[in-house]
Amino acid sequence: MTDAPSEALIHSPMLTNDATILGILAIMLGAVFYTAQSGHSFWKKFYSIVPAVLVCYFLPSLLNTFGVVDGEQSKLYHVASRYLLPACLVLLTLSVDLKAIARLGNKAIILFLTGTVGIVIGGPIALLTVSAFVPELIGVDGPEAVWRGMTTVAGSWIGGGANQASMKEIYGAGDQIFSAMVTVDVIVANLWMAVLLIMASNAKTIDAKSGADVSAIADLKEKVEQFHAKHGRIATLPDLMIIVAVGLGVTGFAHLFADIVTPFFVENYPDSARFSFHSKFFWLIVFASTVGVFLSFTKARKLEGAGASKVGSAFLYILIATIGMKMDVRMIVDAPIYFIIGALWMIVHASLMLIVAKLIKAPLFYMAVGSQANVGGAASAPIVASAFHPSLAPVGVLLAVLGYTLGTYMAWFCGQILQVIG
């Protein structure tokens, strides 16, 4: 009698070696950039419609969707987010012009806070709407109640993974509903990021129609271009090694800092978890961003002339590929009702953002980055910001750090409303 194949074998991915997977991701990224600068009419037309960054994100998702790789088993995202992301943040911020960013005005903050409010009210609205058609979603006791799982999505979409974990503990969400909501979180948030990237590629047209004042953004871009014109040079091997040394060197000390500071807050300030002070990732981002801004006041700023932000952007695109690799669009059919809730939730958030942006005549950039700083956090806010221009990536980082600070408070408040409904 032949043994039936085990469940593990049936669902095991074709490729499990992360070195092989990284090679495939690198080839995909190389192919995208090769075709994006091609003079062929097909590729010119294709990339005039579909942003290259979106393709870099979407292609790896096919590997996960069709079982070639397992995005959850792979350690590539962890490595990219913990090693390459901090280095990327340093290299993108060491040439930041804080005065020019300050001149962007308060509209960026207004839209960021609008995004937070949209998530706080969007969850309850989505639950009330769907429960009108599926009443068994509410009135459920116990850890698997839908409202408990939704609090974890609120934590993720306002602050990040640490806030998501906090909400799971605070509201006692069960593992089953938590797992379903994590899938909703990943797919809905990433689909929204794809929409933002498409909008970013049409920013000029959208801003012209809305009558938005983009002068401050244009001034910031012009300053960056002037800096490149003055200090730009062909990078030598010493230049590149110094750039890598700065990026990865600061990353190393960021990890050391996080390893010291995090246990200190855990042991001495247990209540500080609400600020994400118990998260090593939070301290990694804060340290790398702070040092990057500090270096912008030193001679290290001149490394931008040799292509520091280009090296940082290369790191960022590897991160984009690993984020895409975690998405499996087939999961939508496993729990469609939860995805309907998630989609309605995101529609409320997006609608509020667009309405406020229209009322205050804010550029699309403020809306997109304010939204992604909430929904995606420090891992993806710079991606959306740099889709407008590499010089704008630090704005995404700064707003994402603000999201970490507000995350637990606002997600807790959203949870209180959901609890009353559920």
Any descriptors?
422 residues, mainly alpha, globular, disordered N terminus, membrane, Membrane protein, transmembrane, DUF819
- Unreliable sequence segments: 1-10
Mean pLDDT figure: 84
Instruction: Please outline the major beta sheet.
Output: none
SSE order, as H and E? HHHHHHHHHHHHHHHHHHH
Content-based structural category: mainly alpha
Determine the fraction of residues in helical runs and give it as a percent range: over 70%
User: How many separate helices?
Assistant: 19
Tell me what portion of residues adopts beta-strand conformation.
under 5%
Structural domain count = 1
What is the CA-based Rg, rounded?
22 Å
Q: Total strand count, please?
A: 0
Shape: globular
CA distance, first residue to last residue: 51 Å
InterPro entries: DUF819 (IPR008537)
Transmembrane segments: 15-34, 46-63, 83-102, 109-134, 177-200, 240-261, 281-298, 305-325, 337-357, 364-385, 391-412
Keywords: Membrane, Transmembrane, Transmembrane helix
Protein name: Membrane protein
Polypeptide structure, described:
47% of the residues are buried. It contains 19 helices and no strands. The N and C termini lie far apart (51 Å). The chain is mostly helical and 422 residues long. The chain has one domain. The chain is globular. The chain crosses the membrane at residues 15-34, 46-63, 83-102, 109-134, 177-200, 240-261, 281-298, 305-325, 337-357, 364-385, 391-412. Keywords: Membrane, Transmembrane, Transmembrane helix. This is Membrane protein. InterPro entries: DUF819. It comes from Thalassotalea profundi.
